[in-house]
Amino acid sequence: MPAIFSQQSKDELYRGMIEAGWRQLVSGGVRSLRVEQVAQAVGIAKGTFYSFFPSKGDFIYAMLMENRQHAVDELEDECVAAGGKLGRDGMRAWFQRTWRSQRNIFRIADEKEYAYLVRSFPQERSFDPATDDRLVRWIVGEVADVSPNVDEHAVENLQMSLAFTLLYRRFLHPDALERTVDALIEATLDELF
Asked: Which residue ranges run through the membrane (predicted)?
């Protein structure tokens, strides 16, 4: 990292690159993302971009992890604001925002693009479809006022079904896609509550 950047400048550049990357993904899809355009958007050279992210795969992975962390932080804030655990309506609202977000990679990518993304990630990193078991355990244990007999594996499977529904949307009836997403969210809530 060049010495000319203060820590604040580095942080601002990092955030700016993440935002520029999302703008490209949302507007043009996975294959539209160009490192040169991201660097240009924040006023740095392409080589400087690589001092922040060793590869395009590392960059996309960082974007996805930041987006996931934002969703988790939002859920945690809502739980605190509610003064305890969230009920069915609070969880429904969060699931709907998460699954309807323009930054949901499963809405942006199709199954082939998603496979391309996963292959581009560094080997030691992965991005499970939708949620991983730790997130579900956290929701069940600390966030939601769930049924005592909740089937965590069914919740995980339903969340993965949501991801697959969006990734393979070209095989589905487009007029019913959002109703299908809503039905899977309700099925998830039925398992939780």
From this structure: none
